[in-house]
Design brief:
Layout (H helix, E strand, L loop, with lengths): L9 E6 L11 H4 L4 H15 L2 E6 L3 H14 L2 E5 L8 H8 L5 E5 L21 E4 L4 H14 L4
Parallel strand pairs: 1-2, 1-3, 3-4, 4-5
Protein backbone atom coordinates (compact mmCIF):
# COMPACT_ATOMS: atom_id res chain seq x y z
CA UNK A 1 0.00 0.00 0.00
CA UNK A 2 1.47 3.37 -0.99
CA UNK A 3 1.61 6.33 1.39
CA UNK A 4 -1.22 8.00 -0.53
CA UNK A 5 -3.44 4.91 -0.04
CA UNK A 6 -2.94 4.65 3.72
CA UNK A 7 -5.84 5.87 5.84
CA UNK A 8 -5.21 9.13 7.67
CA UNK A 9 -4.71 8.34 11.38
CA UNK A 10 -7.36 9.89 13.61
CA UNK A 11 -6.11 11.49 16.83
CA UNK A 12 -8.56 12.27 19.60
CA UNK A 13 -7.65 15.56 21.31
CA UNK A 14 -9.58 15.58 24.56
CA UNK A 15 -9.91 18.50 26.94
CA UNK A 16 -11.28 18.41 30.46
CA UNK A 17 -13.18 20.75 32.73
CA UNK A 18 -12.93 24.53 32.51
CA UNK A 19 -10.77 24.48 29.39
CA UNK A 20 -13.75 26.00 27.56
CA UNK A 21 -12.84 29.16 29.53
CA UNK A 22 -9.32 29.47 28.09
CA UNK A 23 -8.44 33.05 27.31
CA UNK A 24 -10.80 34.29 30.02
CA UNK A 25 -9.91 32.26 33.13
CA UNK A 26 -6.55 33.02 34.78
CA UNK A 27 -4.78 34.07 31.56
CA UNK A 28 -1.59 34.69 33.56
CA UNK A 29 -1.45 30.89 34.07
CA UNK A 30 -3.21 29.49 31.01
CA UNK A 31 -2.59 32.20 28.41
CA UNK A 32 -4.84 34.33 26.24
CA UNK A 33 -5.53 31.86 23.45
CA UNK A 34 -9.01 30.36 23.43
CA UNK A 35 -9.73 26.67 23.01
CA UNK A 36 -11.13 27.51 19.55
CA UNK A 37 -7.77 29.13 18.67
CA UNK A 38 -5.98 25.98 19.81
CA UNK A 39 -8.34 23.73 17.86
CA UNK A 40 -7.74 25.74 14.68
CA UNK A 41 -3.96 25.52 15.13
CA UNK A 42 -4.19 21.79 15.87
CA UNK A 43 -6.27 21.09 12.77
CA UNK A 44 -3.72 22.88 10.57
CA UNK A 45 -0.74 21.12 12.18
CA UNK A 46 -2.46 17.72 12.03
CA UNK A 47 -3.15 18.21 8.33
CA UNK A 48 0.53 19.09 7.74
CA UNK A 49 1.54 15.93 9.60
CA UNK A 50 -0.85 13.66 7.71
CA UNK A 51 -3.16 13.25 10.69
CA UNK A 52 -6.80 14.10 11.34
CA UNK A 53 -8.21 15.15 14.69
CA UNK A 54 -11.40 14.77 16.66
CA UNK A 55 -11.20 17.73 19.07
CA UNK A 56 -13.49 17.66 22.11
CA UNK A 57 -13.95 19.42 25.44
CA UNK A 58 -16.20 18.40 28.30
CA UNK A 59 -16.72 19.45 31.87
CA UNK A 60 -18.13 15.98 32.59
CA UNK A 61 -15.97 13.00 33.51
CA UNK A 62 -18.33 10.42 32.00
CA UNK A 63 -18.34 12.20 28.64
CA UNK A 64 -14.53 12.05 28.57
CA UNK A 65 -14.66 8.34 29.43
CA UNK A 66 -17.15 7.81 26.58
CA UNK A 67 -14.83 9.64 24.16
CA UNK A 68 -11.84 7.54 25.24
CA UNK A 69 -13.91 4.42 24.65
CA UNK A 70 -14.95 5.74 21.23
CA UNK A 71 -11.26 6.23 20.39
CA UNK A 72 -10.81 2.47 20.85
CA UNK A 73 -12.93 1.98 17.73
CA UNK A 74 -11.39 4.46 15.30
CA UNK A 75 -8.60 6.39 17.01
CA UNK A 76 -4.90 5.88 16.36
CA UNK A 77 -3.88 7.97 19.37
CA UNK A 78 -5.13 10.19 22.18
CA UNK A 79 -3.85 13.57 23.31
CA UNK A 80 -5.54 14.44 26.58
CA UNK A 81 -5.51 17.55 28.73
CA UNK A 82 -7.59 16.17 31.59
CA UNK A 83 -7.36 19.42 33.58
CA UNK A 84 -8.54 18.89 37.17
CA UNK A 85 -9.43 15.25 36.42
CA UNK A 86 -5.67 14.63 36.18
CA UNK A 87 -5.52 14.51 39.96
CA UNK A 88 -8.82 12.79 40.73
CA UNK A 89 -10.10 10.45 38.04
CA UNK A 90 -9.50 6.74 38.31
CA UNK A 91 -12.35 6.35 35.79
CA UNK A 92 -10.38 8.24 33.13
CA UNK A 93 -7.25 6.26 34.00
CA UNK A 94 -9.13 2.95 33.62
CA UNK A 95 -10.57 4.06 30.27
CA UNK A 96 -7.11 5.07 29.05
CA UNK A 97 -5.72 1.67 30.08
CA UNK A 98 -8.25 0.13 27.67
CA UNK A 99 -6.83 2.10 24.72
CA UNK A 100 -4.11 0.33 22.75
CA UNK A 101 -2.48 3.28 20.94
CA UNK A 102 -0.15 6.04 22.14
CA UNK A 103 -1.46 8.50 24.72
CA UNK A 104 0.04 11.91 25.38
CA UNK A 105 -0.92 13.74 28.55
CA UNK A 106 -0.84 17.50 28.13
CA UNK A 107 -0.99 20.49 30.48
CA UNK A 108 -0.77 24.16 29.55
CA UNK A 109 0.93 25.11 32.81
CA UNK A 110 3.84 23.41 34.54
CA UNK A 111 1.83 21.52 37.14
CA UNK A 112 5.01 20.80 39.12
CA UNK A 113 5.54 24.52 39.83
CA UNK A 114 2.04 24.96 41.20
CA UNK A 115 0.12 23.67 44.23
CA UNK A 116 1.41 20.36 45.59
CA UNK A 117 -1.80 18.45 44.79
CA UNK A 118 -1.28 19.20 41.07
CA UNK A 119 1.95 17.18 41.05
CA UNK A 120 0.06 13.89 41.25
CA UNK A 121 -1.40 12.55 38.02
CA UNK A 122 -3.47 9.41 37.64
CA UNK A 123 -3.38 9.91 33.87
CA UNK A 124 0.43 9.67 33.73
CA UNK A 125 0.17 5.99 34.66
CA UNK A 126 -1.38 5.32 31.23
CA UNK A 127 0.46 7.98 29.20
CA UNK A 128 3.16 7.23 26.66
CA UNK A 129 4.51 10.73 27.32
CA UNK A 130 3.71 13.98 29.14
CA UNK A 131 4.03 17.58 27.97
CA UNK A 132 3.49 20.38 30.47
CA UNK A 133 4.28 24.04 30.92
CA UNK A 134 4.59 25.08 27.28
CA UNK A 135 1.18 26.70 26.92
CA UNK A 136 -0.81 26.26 23.74
CA UNK A 137 2.40 25.28 21.91
CA UNK A 138 2.23 22.01 23.85
CA UNK A 139 -0.71 20.87 21.72
CA UNK A 140 1.29 21.29 18.51
CA UNK A 141 4.27 19.50 20.04
CA UNK A 142 1.97 16.69 21.14
CA UNK A 143 0.73 16.29 17.57
CA UNK A 144 4.32 16.14 16.31
CA UNK A 145 5.16 13.54 18.95
CA UNK A 146 2.04 11.57 18.02
CA UNK A 147 3.01 11.59 14.34
CA UNK A 148 6.44 10.27 15.30
CA UNK A 149 4.89 7.57 17.52
CA UNK A 150 2.66 6.41 14.67
CA UNK A 151 5.31 6.56 11.96
CA UNK A 152 6.25 3.13 10.62
CA UNK A 153 9.89 4.30 10.62
CA UNK A 154 9.89 5.64 14.20
Amino acid sequence: MSASERPVPLIYVLNGPNLNLLGKREPEIYGYRTLADIETACAARADNLGLSIAFHQSNHEGVLVDLIQAAREDGAGIIINPAAYTHTSVAILDALFSFEGPIIELHLSNVHRREEFRSHSYVSKAATGVICGLGAQGYLLALEAMAAQLSPTA
